[in-house]
Amino acid sequence: GAVVSQHPSWVICKSGTSVKIECRSLDFQATTMFWYRQFPKQSLMLMATSNEGSKATYEQGVEKDKFLINHASLTLSTLTVTSAHPEDSSFYICSASKGLPYEQYFGPGTRLTVT
Amino acid sequence: GNSVTQMEGPVTLSEEAFLTINCTYTATGYPSLFWYVQYPGEGLQLLLKATKADDKGSNKGFEATYRKETTSFHLEKGSVQVSDSAVYFCARMDSNYQLIWGAGTKLIIKP
After folding, report:
1. Residues 22-51 of A with CB under 8 A from B
2. pLDDT, tens digit (0-9, with 9 covering 90-100), for B3-56
3. Yes or no, beta carbons of B101 and A103 under 8 Å apart
4. Residue B91 C-alpha, separation from nearest chain A C-alpha, in angstroms
5. Would you call B99 and A104 a contact, using CB atoms and an 8 Å cutoff?
6. What does DSSP assign to residue B53?
7. Prior bond to B40 cis, omega within 30?
8. Which uninterrupted H or E stretch holds A40?
9. pLDDT by residue (tens digit) across B83-107?
10. Distance from CA of B61 to the nearest CA of A (A)
11. How far is the C-alpha of A18 from the C-alpha of A62, rounded, in Å?
């Protein structure tokens, strides 16, 4: 158990458009979901933490108006990159927690390329 | 500052070789420490953890010991297999219960 999926696995979009990435916990209810960004050969950077039904908590330096997070249910969180620019190109990873903060179950990631 | 540093990869070994991937951390106090693994095409998975000094985490033949004297949590395995090829991430928990990550070490095992 404890499977997390992400969709799409990769996406290419044009500069100025918006892209939505979905994160789903398939066989458990996630009290908390996390969104990370990973640059090549660098560590995961936590972008935001979200609990179902409440506003996401963004890390310092992450623009909440640009990276919109919606956690509408206990099994689904979405990240929308608005007005994407080439510098937003990255690998976005979500994770979901049943309760214990270190027991995060990770999705396989989404590769975003903005042209 | 508070960070996690792990050895830069890729690390390439032959099957049945001994593996060590170094990880050191900086933090106040004694944070919980973790190793995560990411197999090709899959999401990160918790491999093992240690929550206090001198604890040893182990799983799937991998071990790591929490050394507060050297602020280290090196990952070891006595005899690696091709199936161990993956990216390994060291992490520690901060005071807000968030994970602070190392950059990851890619491990390549050749038959």
Report:
1. 41-44, 46, 49
2. 899 988 899 999 999 999 999 999 888 899 999 999 987 888 889 999 999 999
3. no
4. 10
5. yes
6. T
7. no
8. none
9. 999 999 999 988 777 888 998 999 9
10. 20
11. 17
